[in-house]
Queue: 2 jobs
Job 1
Amino acid sequence: MKTRFILINTSHAGNVGAAARAMKTMGFDDLVLVAPRWANVLRREETIQRASGALDVLDKCRIVETLDEALDGITHLCATAMTPRDFGPPTTTPRAHFEMLIKKELPVPFPCGPQTGMGFLFGSERFGMRNEDVYRCHVCLSIPSNPAFGSLNIGAALQVIAYEWRLALGGFADSALPVAAVPSTLADAAQVAGMLGHLEESLTHLGFLNPAAPKKLMPRLNALFNRAQVTQEEVHILRGIAKAILKTELQRRG
């Protein structure tokens, strides 16, 4: 099963190194940075020092400009935030969510297996996660902490989540999550985002969506499609519908 850790707008080079170290201790190596502050962050001295030998993780790390680029192959996306969002995904602890995955008690069966991509998002040190990024996720993971001092460093937060996920996967033994009988062509987060953009354009042309006052329509649709676990074929169907709407509206106006 693919597991990816994604850091968005990281401003401190040392946190990238700490993240690499935390990942390697738990046996993970897929790290993606979205628009970090430093273009050369992977080569900065502080990064290398804080990695404490996890240089292979840094070598494999990708830097991209947008979150969409970081989500290829990811089918289950987890935000990491302390504060629940209105209209956002359900908020729970990492352990509780991972236990539900194992016991298959989620509203929609978790697609365990080689086609599954598990993604964990971490926001910037200064501003945390943006609402629009949280809305794209299936769940928001909140680490239990002292109510009077709930601030966790990114490296520390990533270590906790990586540890909990490794335990859920069976530790370092041969055991792992059982494979569920689910479609092998689930759409990844980037494909769902592209479909939503296409739907948003068609709904705007129809007059159903007012771009000046969109309210929460698109985040709600995003949550709906996350729950539905849409396949790639279904995404193509929905984009075909959006294309037909746009074509009909342009012909009507022309």
Note: Residues 72 and 109 are 21 Å apart (CA to CA).
Job 2
Amino acid sequence: MFGQSQDSIESYIDSPEKLKNLYRRVLFVVSLSQIFGGAGLAAGITVGALLAQQMLGTDAYAGVPSALFTLGSAIAAFIVGKLSQRYGRRTGLSTGFIVGGLGAIGVVIAAMMNSVILLFASLLIYGAGTATNLQARYAGTDLANNKQRATAISTTMVMTTFGAVAGPNLVEIMGQFATSIGVPALAGPFILSATAFILAGLVLFIMLRPDPLEIAKRIEAHKQKYEQKNKTESFNKEINKRGLTVGATVMVLTQIVMVAIMTMTPVHMKHHGHGLAAVGIVIGFHVGSMYLPSLVTGILVDKIGRTAMSIASGVTLLFAGLLAAFAPSDSMVLLIVALSLLGLGWNFGLISGTAQIVDSTEPSTRAKTQGKIDVLVALAGASGGALSGMVVANASYAVLSLAGGLLSLLLIPVVIWSRKA
């Protein structure tokens, strides 16, 4: 394990203080990578739909970029999960980020060549960065106990805020920079993405030693060696299956609603006279709300429970959808509030759902299971992104937002079922 001797591994098992220090160091390294990762994912959110609209000349397929990089993230989530399970978090996460950076470079080249085929192929690869940025949240939980898990997830996610909020607000500056070097303005943010994703990958590759998942596996093996199996094993497996089902459902529903409304907001704003800078501000607030509340959310999930915060997610997303549907199209303030609520509802759902997934897995299979569930989450986002353009083209942005808000209410019966079971 990357040069770690058996004696060195045993030292973490024998010394709780040393293990606690490693846990803190892992959180720091993952958080640092998340700052860059957050900046990298902002481009696809902010200008992906606008770039496709410009190149294709129609709104009907404006949701395709979101669908493509989300589909790419689904494929990458599975691969990163498998790599992490076999070779450790360091290898899996650093590979995913660097591949995502290469995809962003491909988007820039596609815009310069005005090649729609290359654009779509590059967006698929760019999705690897998005998937890895999300999967990195699991790395912080490998060495956390069950009362620290949601807080550990939120600590890494809140660091994403710095990059994720800065990214959309650099859209205009990056556009001007791109124009100055002969690149289309809308491809400018993808130059930032390429740099940010590759830096995130390098931070993890160089600094994430020893690998937290490998240490967690050894600790689990050590416990199993000295602990007798008991009659509650089958009961625990049943609880774990239920936890995986509920956690996955919460994350899938919140992802569909969030991606669908978020994807079409820039197009909706552009149609009603808002400039690129205004779009950047609204999306900046949205992305900030996705990540900035994380530290408080994690504490709440650990203190008041996964179920309560999952219900809060559904209610918040409902209000977001209603406000986006009925807000006047020329009101920047109401759009900011609606998209902020959308981000907050997603935040509640992702952290409570992720905590349930971690609670229901063991280190020996954790990364692989997490990767598979993130595939479902990514496919849900791809569906939301692809359908959002068609709904708006054939109905309206208000109908899309209202449908999203109502869909989020399905979270409530799901978590109530889990409590009764």
Note: Residues 158 and 291 are 5 Å apart (CA to CA).
